[in-house]
Amino acid sequence: MTAESTVPSPTGQQPRTAEHAVSVLDQRGPAAGRGLPPGRRARRPRRTARLPLLLVDGGAAVLGALVVPGAHRYPLLIVLLALGVMGLNRRARLYDLWVVPGVLDVFPSLCGRIALGWAAVAAFSPLRPIPPTVLGVAFAVHCAAACAGRAAVHAQRTLLRGPSPALVVGPIATARTVAAALLRRPGCGVRPIGLVTGPLDVLADSGDGPELPVLTTDQATRRAVVQNGVETVLVVGATTRLEKAPVLRDLAAYGCVLWELDAYAPSYRTGGRRESAGHLAGFSRRLLCPGGRRPGSTGKRVLDVVLAGSLLLLACPVLLVCAVVLRVKDGPGVVFRQERIGKDGRPFTLLKFRTHRPASAHEAATRWSVANEQEMSRFCQFLRRTSLDELLQLWNVCRGDMSLVGPRPERPYFVAQFSQTYPCYSERHRMPTGITGLAQIHGLRGDTSIEDRCRFDNAYIDNWSLWQDICILVRTAALFVRPTGS
After folding, report:
1. Which of 279, 280, 231, 277 shows the shortest CA–CA distance to 257?
2. DSSP 8-state assignment for residue 276
3. Engineered SS bond to 429: which of 5, 265, 334, 470, CB 3.0-4.6 Å?
4. How far apart are CA 95 and CA 406, in angstroms?
5. In the chain, how many domains are there?
6. Global confidence as pTM
């Protein structure tokens, strides 16, 4: 067994002051002053229009192609060039302008993808051979037109829209510090309009900082989003994200984009090549939830469904034999169901073959491990050593509760315990939990160091790639029969 995640903090009765605090926000539309109807989704705030940038990139591709003699006779070639560059730009999140970047900030990335597009044209187009000078001029015209067009779009956004309204989520003192810094820098493109914190933090609030509404209930937070057209949420504090996981999931569903800011000092989280996203008014920031999904999550989910579904079908005879032997030897109750904590602190029911019968539900929830206990039958010990008892979790993967690769899920009791003991433990649930992971292939299974698991799991998340998942699965297959226990 391993451990990862945090349980959302229990919420008691909320102070009435937080509900009234939202009244200082600008009232917009008929939804002002009312909570959201139960069971209904809020209308998503209007997201930044991407059409102008798409038109800019398409027009720049046309201008660059017209430099090449004879290119006008191949309109399909120009269309493919434009679509190819747009696709590369989308993968690089160059259309996700939740915070306005400068043209110089995206210049290397933009020009690099345009260069790839023209390299493909030079290698495969019917216009070959294209003289290097002509190719260089076409590339330069394409880059110049794209950069100039983007500069115009950014200027239009800044002049007409002004800073985007945002909520700051975190401990009250830290949230006030971040909000004050952002208000001193209106050119950063973000204007805090409220602070989202817990009711206990309000009691310790000194009031130093900007006079902004303090929101302590989910209803007040959702109302602020609807009334102000909030599109940006800034999360500060090491454990805030999972403590406020339910409201953050709601905010992402309403169309808000979640950023995590390092309020004081740099941390390991900004070092991941896929996680870092520059700075905001001097605060290192990274994207938590771009449109509610992590980049690459579609490919990871496809890999999970295809591979887990195939393995489940192939393993059916093995599962049947294990179930029959367990039924004969240990009686009814072959499948063991236990609550575990998944992505963003959400609980789910994990499935395993029953290899041990706890004395009570309390023991099942709070006893760490029974992997080496002698009261288990030899067959149950064999299931543990070979990890065959874990095969039923392929069904959890197919259901979407887990992934094939990720931090191992743990029980709520240990999640709460380890979150208080080990720094950054809660960060392990930024991605779905998994059957295997980077920690497991390095021997961190069973009764091993929680601190080491935490470090390996966070390193996996910070440097995630689909290829890394494949490598971990291959190494897991090689170690599948290793007698390490779980």
Report:
1. 231
2. E
3. 5
4. 29
5. 3
6. 0.52
Domain membership flag for residue 121: yes
The Cα 360–Cα 136 span in angstroms is 74
261-103-133 Cα angle (round to 5): 140
Distance of CA 137 to the CA centre of its chain: 40
CA atoms within 13 A on the CB side of 273: 4
Q: Contact at 8 Å (CB) between 89 and 96?
A: no
Distance CA 252, CA 317 (A): 42
Look up tokens 């073959």; give the residue: 353
Digit-coded pLDDT (tens) for 252-281: 777 788 888 877 654 444 444 444 556 777
Is residue 19 domain-resident? Answer: no
One domain for residues 319 and 446: yes
- Its domain, for residue 286, covers 162-292
Amino acid 323 reads: A
Q: Which amino acid is at 347?
A: P
CA distance 362 to 453: 25
Gyration radius from the chain CA atoms: 26
Show which of 110, 145, 160 is a domain's final residue: 160
Q: What's the rounded Cα separation, in Å, for the pair 474 and 467?
A: 11
- Answer whether 164's CB lies under 8 Å from 191's CB: yes
DSSP character string of 299-364: HHHHHHHHHHHHHHHHTHHHHHHHHHHHHHHH-S--EEEEEEE-GGG-EEEEEEE-----SSHHHH
Q: Which residue has the tokens 């004969």?
A: 328
pLDDT at 79: 92
- Which long-range contacts does 271-276 make (Cβ < 8 Å, 24+ apart)? 271/462, 272/461, 272/462, 272/463, 272/464, 273/463, 274/462, 274/463, 274/464, 274/465, 275/461, 275/462
In a domain, 39, yes or no: no
Q: Is pLDDT at 203 greater than 80 in this prediction?
A: no
- 282 CB burial (10 A radius; 0-12, 13-18, 19+): exposed
Residue 260 lies in a domain: yes
Q: What is the DSSP string of 382-424?
A: HHHHHTGGGTTHHHHHHHTS-EEESPPPB-HHHHHHHHHHSTT
Of 217, 214, 244, residue with least CA distance to 12: 217
Burial class for 205, CB neighbours closer than 10 Å (0-12, 13-18, 19+) = middle
Helices (H), 29-102: 51-66, 75-91
Q: Is the pLDDT of residue 93 over 50?
A: yes
**Could you tell me if 100 and 151 lie in one domain?**
yes
